[in-house]
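call fold(seq) -> tokens
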Amino acid sequence: MARVPPFRSRPLKLSRALRLAALLALLAGCKSFDYLGHGVEGRDVQLIALYGSDRIDTAQLDKITIKGFSINDFNNPTVQRFISGYQTYGRDNLLETLGRAHVYLPFIFEAFKEKGVPADLAYLPIIESSFNARAVSYMSATGLWQFMYGTGRMYGLDGNYWYDDRMDPRRSTVAAAYMFKWLFQTFDNWLLALAAYNSGPGTVAAAIQKTGSSNYWELCRQNALPRETREYVPKFIAATFIAKNPEKYGFPPFDPSKDPRIKTYTVEDATDLGIIAQCSGVPLEQLQLLNPALRQWATPPMLQYPVHLPEAAYDRFAANYRKIPPEDRVTFRRYLVRMGDNLTAIAARYGIPVNPIAQINRFKNQHFIQAGESIIIPIRGLDNARQMDARLSAMAGSNAAPKRGTYTFLHEVEDGESLYEIALRYGVEIFDLFEWNELTSKTDIMKGKLLVLKKSTAPAPRRTAPPAP
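ret:
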């Protein structure tokens, strides 16, 4: 079982020796690295070396009872400076932020209450992301709570081409609650926990070690923390003061408990968001706002996925959705792999990345596909699929709509191969190779170049060709 990391008095940085020790422990089957039974692939060795696991044991954190916290206990000149800033040059931005907050705050309060986290921390996204679930910082911190990829994985937030849990307000809120509990257990002080949320526990631990003080304000007075962290906590306190007492500070009334009335419907497999919009009568833009973790035009394939809908549209969606055959809920095309094909070229043909094709076809090795096998190509929406069909039909060597009786395929030029050898190998005229590929006598035929070939029957190439005359 993974251990909750103890308090650390030094920055959390891996030395070369520690990395080597971690790898040696992996090879030796050290018990503290108990994940070995599940394999190394996809695990973060650096996090394992630091914590004994690359996932925080949330079950252990659930057992922890932490002290309450209310920002009403604090008053500070820096806090007052930020309050004045929000009342003047920052007013418009704060108004916009609070306008988005009511969508998320009800379930954040509920999740924090369930996990035993102080309710005032629910206002932290004001300064983290402006309550924008799709916010991405210049350091690639993402979502309401601005999780980095590695930190998010520690708290159970995953993602791929189709979705990013860091952008899922509900899942990321639970992860944030666990992170707050871990930080409070580490520092036994909410202000230090907040500082560590901003700059990392190693930075705060190093400041405590350097000054001998565990008082946040004293660490700020001695400039022991980065400037951003020295301003982070006062800025949060100021924003929370205003959010809890808007009229006192000249802002319009704000009711954070207003429930947007959302219901969740779990779809069984990949479903086009356009289909969901049609079935529910909810505009596509609103669906994307309610489901910000979805990165593409559809829910993930081969995965049950919860779709959030306005409560008023739920029954209509459920009734209409059940009438649609599963194969019509997302648009796919089947592609017959030809000799010489590779996944990169196929993906480029259809204008989509390689990863979704590999994922939906469950390829273990993206670099190995077999001629003759049929693979599924996900296409964004029926209109796009029709346009794609028309475009591919017009292309030379199209596999989407080949001429009747004609077998079209690709050949990847090997090192030292000539056009004569290729033509002889497949039993075609060299002049046809020039025409099919728009070649001239000055065109260089380099290794790796893909050439279009056509035959009336499937090719059966010989392994060798006689030397050119």
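The longest helix spans residues 91-115.
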